[in-house]
């Protein structure tokens, strides 16, 4: 985990140095911001009768414009994910907290409106189940998750962005030895 934070600190430093270079073309440049929103998370695969769990995400974002149509948007997000089950009026929640690092390619199809897609790596920082007031650690989950994001966004002239995307989990997060059980993350994000 220390290596990840060191890498990200160096990346932000490199972006800051790059952002300070003089730009002569307004369609090129780097902008930084914060991002926050709601998650509608679920676990997919060999799991049944589970429901979406409401969560949230927040973090930092950079948009690197290459021209007036194309940009790359790396992000560093804390994301509350998981799923929930209903048992005779009680709710069992699986709360999975990740540090996600998506890198989105953005294409502006019209003034302010963009479509985006790109890979994501997630680092599990906490996994707990909560039922009837009791909380327990969930073991046997992989600490790294890979996914692919796709979505759309709208950017106001002021720089305020609105977006919706889907994170499709690509890797099995079940870490039980000799198990054929497959579980993948699936998250709708509105930011």
Shape: elongated
Largest sheet: 8 strands, antiparallel, barrel
Distance between the termini: 26 Å
Strand content: over 45%
Number of helices: 1
Radius of gyration, taken over Cα atoms and rounded to an integer in Å:
18 Å
> What strand order characterises the main sheet?
1-2-3-4-5-7-8-9
- Number of strand segments: 9
* Mean pLDDT reading: 87
Provide the structure class. mainly beta
Residue windows where pLDDT falls under 50 for at least 5 positions: 1-26
Helix content: under 10%
Question: If you had to describe this structure to a student in words, what would you say it looks like?
Answer:
This protein has 191 residues and is mainly beta. The protein has one helix at residues 2-19; strands at 29-45, 53-65, 70-87, 90-110, 113-131, 134-137, 144-155, 161-169, 183-190. A hairpin with a 2-residue loop joins strand 5 and strand 6 (134-137).
